[in-house]
Amino acid sequence: MGCCPRKDLLEACLNLEIFGYKSQGCRKALCVAGYILSCGALLLLFYWKPEWDVWANCIPCSLEEADVVLLRTADEFRIYSRKNVTWISVSALIKSRSDYPAVVGEGSIFNEAIMKPSLQVKSIQVQRIRYVWNTSVKQFQKVGALEDHHTCSAIHAKFGSGLTCDEQNVRRLICGPNTIDVPVIPIWKLLIKEVLNPFYVFQLFSVCLWFAEDYMEYAAAIIIMSLLSIALTVYDLRQQSVKLHRLVESHNNTMVTVCRNKEGFHELESHLLVPGDMLVLKAGRALLPCDAILISGQCIVNESMLTGESMPVTKTHLPQADNVKPWRMHCAEDYKKHVLFCGTEVIQTKADDRGEVKAVVLRTGFNTAKGDLVRSILYPKPMNFKLYRDALRFLMFLIAFAAIGMIYAVCVFALSGVREVVKKALDVITIAVPPALPAALTTGIIYTQRRLKKKGIFCISPQRINMCGQLNLICFDKTGTLTEDGLDLWGLLPSERNCFQDIQSFRADHSLPWSPAFRAMVVCHSLIVLDGKIQGDPLDMKMFEATDWVKLCFVVIPGPKASSAPVEGIIILYQFPFSSALQRMSVIAQKIGGEQEVFTKGAPETVAKLCRAETVPLNFESKLLLYTAQGFRVIGLACKPLQAERQFADLTREEVESDLTFLGLLIMENQLKKETKPVLEELSAARIRSVMVTGDNVQTAITVAKNSGMISPTSTVILVEANKIPGSFSASVTWKLLEENKTKDYGSLVTGSGQYHFAMSGKSYQTVVQHFSHLLPKLLLSGTVFARMSPGQKSSLVEEFQKLDTEEECAFQALKMAHAGISLSDQEASVASPFTSQTPSIACVPELIREGRAALVTSFCMFKYMALYSTIQYLGVLLLYWQLNSFGNYQFLFQDLAITTVIGVTMSFTDAYPKLVPYRPPSQLISPPLLLSVILNILFSLSVQIWGFVVVQEQPWYSKTNIHSACGENLSAEHKEEHLIAGEARVSKQSYENTTVWLLSTINCLIVALVFSKGKPFRQPVYTNYVFILVLTGQLGVCLFLVFADIDDLYSKLDVSICTRTEAVIENRALWLLLKKTFGYYSKSHYRRLQRVLEQDSAWPPLNETFFSDSVAISVDENMGGHSNPTFDSNENTL
């Protein structure tokens, strides 16, 4: 292309390569001439292949000079798209050069994008996101979001007072409106787009060819089916467009309050917001129209739309840290605690000592979290699955196969002097290459999705269903997934003067005594009061309920059953929310009329490090190990007094959470769900590996893994600890047997005869990734427990598992990074993961795997059937071409509609097999077993058709010209002339060979459908698909009816030659004798019995022997007791 690719220029998540091109007039003129001369065929080709359009019309150039850019995905699909460069003029908004710095802002992307002196901005739009040309770094950069390089203090200083009117206007012009606009696509656009699909273009070509060959009825039927298919598809797309439009419509029509620099507060419509605007959040519920950074006050937010979790989330303001780090790097993984996301609902706001609750607009439009969700629906990523790649390769093979048939057809018809050679040759392509072949891969998915929906499992990414059939590794969270959501309080182990006291149990008839640890339980939580009910984290709910106190907004007071307390109540002044990275949360609280205190709750080992050493008991580690080894969830508690004169807004988390006093351990019992152990046993029996990834303590996680059966009782657990060496850039890694395993023989592990599992913490995992990457695959191979993992580390772990082996497929609850993430949620669908289960247990996992395997096998069966059906028809037509013949109009119609279409619809009805077998279905179409199956069936079909073709010619009644010769009838001269017209291109379809080959190929299609309807071990046996069996039986019955119907008009329409001789079956002596011999049937008459006895008597007749009678004779009447004929007797006497 003459231009080196620029990779990842637009966005890391898009992963696009970009090429610059410049339009050229002479090339455009040549292309226009090509469009006219090709009657639009070249234009249609360029519509399908935009890269060819760009290469033909443009010449390569640098991106700076380009007026057209070509984008290419950097994955293996390498999909191209064309974008035109547009220019935005801001000269009308910048009145003079002296106003330029104030309006644009020094160091911003807007300053770098505006070209001088023209005051224009060069831009492109990719997937609804606008990118502008940065003149200094010479690349396109995204606008519509606040620059990442701003520090915390810079955000407060630059945007804390709001933007001026001129700054806002310039940013709005360059960034575009703050709208997530998904217009309802007009029907005519959907119709044109659908009609121009290669499938329908191929159908149009085929129909024109069939009309030219006088296949009128067949062509008309295909047109009707295609129109119906187009109408249904357009209707479905229109409904989706309307639904998506209504989903985002409310986003664009809200009123907000913004703070303008030196102009005060203004009410405006949300679509006018720009990055950097100061947003004022008022009391009451409100939907966020953009992503914003909270810079003052606190908010309680419902983020269920994004995460699938209905639990309210607390947001705190961005600290005014004075450092050089960008604000995201300073906040690390906790930056989301300061960000309000678009589409989420603000439930409550709480102002601090600086007055209003304010937030700086971070992202607008499609750059927001909600916009990203909508874009993922509008532009789904292509699935990297071998099945679809193999389908396209197989389609190419069929095209090559059809080319051989075309050459054969040309040779046969050209040598015979037939003029319609081209039409006959092109007809071979329409037969050998079924255009619906790739669509056959989706049939299993459609029915499986319906079955999953009935079982309470919803899917927003149907293409991932087939991938579920290949899963061999499942990563589970612990709390709420393997164990119950609710925790039972087991006891409180208080600490005083660096010594643990007697454990205090929780009893219904006894309240805990007043103590600092009790105060921590009362206030150190993130619970809120919403509509008169307390809501929040299940752990916090259980802990607070155990105190018998009552929460009233931001105040907690003793309840009627609470133990006596020396205070009227406690006010919760400020909260530092729980952080997965920090593994703790803190609150600042004040007794009514008393002093302020800080209370901290979190992972015991983390809390202990924040406490003064003299307050931590000496036996802290042994006590912690004692309870975690029993599977208890242990929470550490700590506190310290706070100086009252400090302002909360000026306090940093590091200041607040330091020099604490250790208060004790809160011990909670987390029971396994009843479904957990059976499901894990089922997965283990199916050789599907289970891994636990949790934020809990490593010892607790190991115990839960053992209790659930994830780690067998006979297995050894090895704890992997990796640490950075202080004062250096190196690190160390240590493998240690757990205490209970130390009695085992370590040598058995070394020799590989023992089964072992690795367990490690998130900190150790991070160190291994950074310093021991060569060991990581070995650790992952046997790693079973990953504890104290942050969300970022969980995503990293899933990616590493996927890299471990190209065949490795991974599922993980509530993670979009996995091949098949599953969210356990009450909602019908969650954007947090491709699958959402309304069943709050892991029982959905084997169900999803079963259905995924069934869908995958169904896709294979349908694909093979479609390929074999077209091949059978293709072989039959080529065989008839030898006699300048072919199938008739209604013969094609019967096979395509009455047989294949009905089978294609009903074959996928077979349900999944209830048992998971210890191996997966194949994932490749181009694999020896599957290819062998197809090839053998092709050879069988070819042999049967050739056998029928040859045998019918050897029959004594066979005649090439007389199609009624089998019935003993002679063809009249008129019929002969009509049957074969010398020199004419049209040849008769009706012949004995045609009838034989057509009937054999039709029945062969039924046999192939039955053979390829694979049942066990991934689907139920085929006989359980009653509709499919009924259809096959009915189709076979129709075929037999055609053989014996003896309806001349029907035979004439179908172009078949059948002489129905019922007596050949009903009165066939040879057949009757054969059946009698086969089943051992003998006549019961006395004559036949005597005959059989004599045949078996070797002494009969007795030759050369004389028999003598007995001495007593028996008297016999004259007439011997027989029948007498009086007339005959009388006449005889007369004579």
UniProtKB/TrEMBL annotation:
GO (cellular component) term, any one: endoplasmic reticulum membrane
Q: Which residues cross the membrane?
A: 29-48, 218-237, 391-416, 428-447, 866-884, 930-950, 996-1013, 1025-1045
Q: Does the keyword Membrane apply?
A: yes
Instruction: State the top-level EC class.
Output: translocase
Which Pfam family, an example, fits this chain?
Answer: P5-ATPase
Which residue numbers delimit the Cation-transporting P-type ATPase N-terminal domain? 142-215
Q: Indicate the segments annotated as coiled coil, or none if absent.
A: none
Give the reactions, separated by semicolons, that this protein catalyses: ATP + H2O = ADP + phosphate + H(+)
Q: Which domain of life is it from?
A: Eukaryota
For this UniProt entry, the molecular function terms from Gene Ontology, in alphabetical order, are: ATP binding; ATP hydrolysis activity; ATPase-coupled monoatomic cation transmembrane transporter activity; metal ion binding; P-type ion transporter activity; polyamine transmembrane transporter activity
Name the PROSITE patterns for this protein. Answer: ATPASE_E1_E2
UniProt entry keywords in alphabetical sequence: ATP-binding, Magnesium, Membrane, Metal-binding, Nucleotide-binding, Translocase, Transmembrane, Transmembrane helix
Its GO biological process terms?
intracellular calcium ion homeostasis
Q: Does the keyword Metal-binding apply?
A: yes
Tell me how this protein sits in the membrane.
Multi-pass membrane protein
Q: Where in the cell is it found?
A: Membrane
Q: What is its EC number?
A: 7.2.2.-
- What main location does UniProt list? membrane
| NCBIfam families, A to Z | ATPase_P-type, P-ATPase-V
Per the record, the similarity remark reads: Belongs to the cation transport ATPase (P-type) (TC 3.A.3) family. Type V subfamily.
Please report the name of this protein according to its UniProt entry: Cation-transporting ATPase
Species this protein is from: Dromaius novaehollandiae (Emu)
